[in-house]
Amino acid sequence: MERQQAWDIVCEFVQSDSLRKHMLSVEFAMRAYAEHYGEDADSWGLIGLLHDFDWEIHPTLEQHPMDGAPILRERGLDEEGIRTILSHGPLAADDRITLRDKALYAVDELTGLITATALVRPSKNVGDVEVKSIRKKWKDKAFAAGVDRSDVEEGCALLGVDLWEFHIPLVLKAMQDRAKELGLDGVGA
Q1: How far apart are CA 46 and CA 28, in angstroms?
Q2: Which of 109, 127, 158, 189 has minimal CB crowding within 10 Å?
Q3: Nearest 5 degrees, angle CA 2-CA 84-CA 17?
Q4: Cα separation values, 27 from 41, 133, 189, Å
Q5: Alpha-carbon distance 160 to 81, whole Å?
Q6: Cβ atoms within 10 A of the Cβ of 58, count?
Q7: Which domains does the chain have, with CATH numbers?
């Protein structure tokens, strides 16, 4: 599957601008992880882009992402890509086998926390966010309460990477590098 085809799927199934931007954030973070591991950044990014495409039509954890798999299969996504997307679901803990599976699980929730951290800043610019800012917000469980921090921690443990020294800096930089596409560049703030 080509990226444009994946983006077309996102645009067809996802109406929420914030959900689309979340999916782009995960795409960029997955590309960064792929580059770090010497893997195919295009295929890893594609998985990040598509991972939540079905959330608006299957918005429960019992349905998402399982119910979206047949759609992706019909549209031509390979079985390994589908398996990775399925592995990020809450019911698939035993299915996180590959580095790509583990990375998707680790970055998914974190991108939401980074976005929320940027949006509460006066500048609304992710470029102004530092790891220490995220650490402060991380401790405040009421802040971005929907972000499951334990998923991020578990994902880092599966990858064998340090949350604060490696994971958060990598994902933050990936998002900062593409801030304009994410609407987190402070323009119009």
Answers
A1: 9
A2: 189
A3: 60
A4: 9, 23, 24
A5: 22
A6: 18
A7: 3-180 (1.10.3210)
Structure token pair of residue 124: 């609304």
Phi/psi of residue 185, nearest 5 degrees: -100, 5
* 100-158 confidence digits (pLDDT tens): 999 999 999 999 999 999 999 999 999 999 999 999 999 999 999 999 999 999 999 99
Sign of CA dihedral 115, 146, 79, 163: positive
Q: What is the pLDDT of residues 49-94, one digit of tens each?
A: 999 999 999 887 778 888 899 999 999 999 999 999 998 877 666 7
Structure tokens at 166: 């490696």
Structure tokens at 46: 């594609």
Residue that is written with structure tokens 């035993």 in the block: 94
